[in-house]
Amino acid sequence: MAEEIKPKLIVFDLDYTLWPFWVDTHVDPPFTLKGNGKVYDFRGAEVKHYPEVPDVLKKLQNDGYKLGIASRTGAIEDGRKLVELFGWEEYFQFSEIYPGVKTKHFSRFNEKSKIPYEDMLFFDDENRNIVDVSKLGVTFCFMFRVGLCDNVGDTLEEESAHFDVKPGGKINVYTRDWDGFHCVFTYACQGGTKEQWMMTLKRSINKKYSKCLVFRPSGNSYLFFEQFSVQIKGPQIQSAKLLANNGKPLSPEQYKIEKSKNTVTHTNEKFNSELTFIEIDAIRHKKKKEL
Ligand SMILES: [Mg+2]
């Protein structure tokens, strides 16, 4: 039997790992905890974490693991406040919340806890953090935005290519195909000149989780989109994140996820024609065994 190796410190990212939003852009502080036990933001919208998180943290603490937070959010106080209001402070012995490369966060964990990097396990949803931190020897687990983690230590492979997004109002289609994982971007837009965009496909080594990203690398687009749609063939769409200029999230009424067509599409009435970034998470379900 293989020897079971257990980590001594388990570290979690915050945004899109413990809760499904970016604390610096999606929610409006100050936050308050109401008598019903729920947390609300300034606008009165409920702020929710991923539902399983409290049970997971409690179980890990009861099982004797030390727990930490490594977040690179710029909204340092807001991140801390939410951890406090969700009642999670008792679980985390270590907390490093500030912008910058996460190797810094981990070197602080190492200094404070004296736990070697090899005995740390790290959960994060962004590949760049996982790549940085894994160089220290930390074992990592990539979180997809559906809040799942599978095959600890599995990294992501990716392939990407630039393509031109052309104005003129015509319907254009750009497709990439990677071993049965297709991403099809259809759009029509108006504007002055064409822009260079990029499509990146990512997947876990076990091919269960996939991502398709369609974006303008500079983060801003001067085109006026009349319509867009991204269709995935192969894995099933689970969630999507879309941004307009300056990293501003598109509000949920500006687009729709249609699971039956496996598409993410603009909504006619609400979409305000600004688009710079689309990220789609998809899962390949195991084929049912034929009887
Ligand atoms: Mg994150």
List the helices and strands and how they pair.
Layout: E1 9-12, E2 32-33, E3 39-40, E4 46-47, H1 53-62, E5 66-71, H2 76-85, E6 94-97, H3 102-113, E7 120-124, H4 127-134, E8 139-142, E9 156-165, E10 172-178, E11 181-190, E12 195-204, E13 209-215, E14 224-233, E15 236-243, E16 255-258, E17 263-266, E18 277-283
Parallel strand pairs: 1-5, 1-7, 5-6, 7-8
Antiparallel strand pairs: 2-3, 3-4, 9-12, 10-11, 11-14, 12-13, 13-18, 14-17, 15-18, 16-17
The chain binds magnesium ion.
Describe the structure in your own words:
- With 291 residues, this protein is mainly beta.
- It has 2 domains: 9-142, HAD superfamily/HAD-like (Rossmann fold), CATH 3.40.50.1000; 156-283, no CATH class.
- 14% of the residues lie in helices and 36% in strands.
- The protein is built from 4 helices and 18 strands.
- The chain has helices at 53-62, 76-85, 102-113, 127-134; strands at residues 9-12, 32-33, 39-40, 46-47, 66-71, 94-97, 120-124, 139-142, 156-165, 172-178, 181-190, 195-204, 209-215, 224-233, 236-243, 255-258, 263-266, 277-283.
- The strands form 4 sheets. It has a 5-stranded parallel sheet, with helices on both faces. A 5-stranded antiparallel sheet has the order 9-12-13-18-15, with no helix packed on it.
- A hairpin with a 5-residue loop joins strand 2 and strand 3 (39-40).
- The protein is globular.
- The model has no long low-confidence stretch (mean pLDDT 89).
- The structure holds magnesium ion.
- Magnesium ion (MG) binds next to loops.
